[in-house]
Amino acid sequence: MAGVHVYMPESAGDPVVLECGGERPIAFPRQDPPTSLRADRIWAELATSPDPGSLLDAYGTALGQWLLGSDGVALLNRTRGRDGTCRISLHLKNDRLSGWPWELAHAPELRAAIGIDDDFSVVRVLRGDPPSPRAREVMLVGIDYDETSGYQAIQTGDEVEAIRQTLLALEPDRIDPEMISTGRWSSVVARITSSGPPAVFHFAGHAAARENALVFRNDSNGYAQITSAMLCDLLTRHSAPCRLVVLNACSTSASRGSPLEPFGPMAWRLVERGVGAVVGHQAPVAGRAARCFAATFYAQLVSGATVDVAAQTARRAMFDDPETHVAWPFVTCMTRGVPQDVLAAAPRFDRNQADTQYFRAAFREQRAELAELIEDKRSFIAVVRGPERSGHRYVIDRIQKDLRQNNHVVDQPIPAMTWCIGGDARLNSKALLGAIAEAGRIPSRGTDEELKKRIAEWVTRKCVSGATLVLDVVDVCSASSEAEADAIVALVQPVWHDIVRRAGVQPTVLLLAVGYPPGSVRQKARIDSALALMRTTPLENTELHLLEELGPFRPELLTKFFTDQQIAEPRARELAEELCEYDNERALERLHRMLYGTAA
Fold first, then answer.
1. pLDDT for residue 81
2. Is residue 131 part of a domain?
3. Residue 317 lies in a domain
4. CATH of the domain at 533
5. Rounded distance, CA 381 to CA 511, Å?
6. Beta-bridge partners for 227
7. pLDDT value at position 596?
8. Shared domain check, 304 and 211
9. Which pLDDT score, from 0 to 100, does residue 417 have?
10. How far apart are CA 334 and CA 121, in angstroms?
11. Count of domains for the chain
12. Between 20 and 30 A from 260 (CA), which of 46, 179, 405, 510?
């Protein structure tokens, strides 16, 4: 796309400079534009104007004369004539002139205002390199406000759900949209802290312009103003900033005398700190206008459009709708460096080939340790250990699949039992036996001894045909004290052994997952101590295997996995690095979605 670069004055009296490749730069000195052309002033006047269309035309012409002049308009027409399309990049050295709706600029020699002309795209640019591509996750945050909130009552649930459905309909197997339906700031912080900023962060709600803040829910179900500094810190963590932040929001504080333009300083701060692009509204935006903008904008992004082209098309859609006709000039797009295609298509995979190689890049050591035991149909206990969210659930799933592939008939009486070990072994025994009874629909009345007998009879019936009994005890069992660590050994092994001894079945497999919070040296030591004790108390005819400790995925193994899928090595390395930005469980969810189009 051909481009005209407009360098905005750093201070009053400096020139506006227009450049286009191969032509002499055009420069003309400018004092600051009149405040009557600011977005807040224009919006306030539109509310009482009997002819808003004519008002926008008049203000657009004034803005066009200030920004482009006759020479600039001629340059745009020449550029458009050569290439068909033209990107108008407004280079800003500070945010002094961010409050004017430059997208409204018009001239008689132009077909339409530059913000809705099909041959143009308008983008506000700060110097810097955009973030690297990453997994295509869109986080959608919608916040509802009632009459008691102190803000205008609005409902955003339909908007964010419509965006989610749009993304899933257009790219069901390559985009991962996630909704934070409560709108709680603490939920957003927890999610991004654990897995890093998403590729796209979409906010639908109110802004507090005076405080340069967005209005989220707090934990007491009230409202909290989250400043641009707080938002910026969250969305640029982990050295992997968001590629795009969409602020589909407005301020309703104009009646109290504060400016309507909330996204100049906020967008500036976000982009300056590393966010790739920010798209927002300079004025209050009604629900229909917000939905019209979002639907068109995301459809364009998914098709591979850059953010400036997507915003341009969304403005045009708003212009064409009689009910949103006056809202389009106040949609702005600011980028860090050259605009990017933030939701560019991910590679397609050969599913048949992927089925034979799925997870080969992960948990290779753990699966190799069990191969002989599984093939020989021997009884064993497999302990999967490592930091929480490092893949316990997936290792256990792979063990079960390997068992089935080696002609074991797997019976899993407790598919996923979330069980927290405590310090009192008697209470733990009741909890464990009760959970098994509940999973098997076994009456839990009577004493522990009576319940064990009924469970053993049930196990015998389940395994009468020679099935392998697989008991999946827990997703992740964390030991926060020595008593809890000891309970892993003192409770799990005896209860397990007593059940299978009474049932008289072989072979049996116990899958036990234990973990600790990442970075917790003390809890890791307690787990290691408990597992060392397990080694000294073996069970009859049952081998204990403490599998290789789980650790972060290695980029080189994931790269090999992707190259096995016929992905070019540069792109394979890029995909591997994207996945390694997250904890293992989140990375595997994304990998599963890439391969199969569904969550794991």
1. 67
2. no
3. yes
4. 3.40.50
5. 6
6. 213
7. 61
8. yes
9. 44
10. 12
11. 4
12. 179
Is residue 395 located within the same domain as residue 317? no
List the domain range (segments joined by +) for residue 80.
2-126
Structure tokens at 170: 């257009």
Tokens coding 518:
């990442």
Asked if residue 163 and residue 108 are part of one domain, the reply reads no
For residue 54, report the phi and psi dihedrals to the nearest 5 degrees: -65, -35
In a domain, 341, yes or no: no
The rounded distance, in Å, linking the Cα atoms of 420 and 532 is 20
Residues 28 and 112 in one domain: yes
The conformational region for residue 441 under phi > 0 = left, psi -120 to 50 = alpha, else beta, is left
Amino acid at site 9: P
Same domain, 113 and 146: no
Question: Residues 454, 412: one domain?
Answer: yes
Whether omega for the bond prior to residue 339 falls within 30 degrees of 0, making it cis, is: no
Query: Which parts of the chain have pLDDT scores under 70?
Result: 1, 81-83, 133-135, 170-174, 209-210, 238-239, 250-264, 344-362, 409-429, 439, 465-466, 471-493, 538, 593-600
Structure tokens at 434: 């009760």
pLDDT computed for residue 255 by the predictor: 32
b (16+ CB within 10 A) / e for 161-199: eebbebbeeebebbbbbebbbbbbbebbbebbeebbbbb
* Span 268-279, pLDDT tens digits: 888 988 899 999
For residues 406 and 513, membership in a common domain is answered with: yes
Q: How far apart are CA 202 and CA 247, in angstroms?
A: 6
How far apart, in Å, are the Cα atoms of 489 and each of 228, 278, 480, 538?
50, 53, 15, 11
CA distance 282 to 207: 11
Amino acid identity of residue 179, one-letter, is M
In a domain, 342, yes or no: no
Q: What is residue 348's predicted lDDT score, i.e. its pLDDT?
A: 62
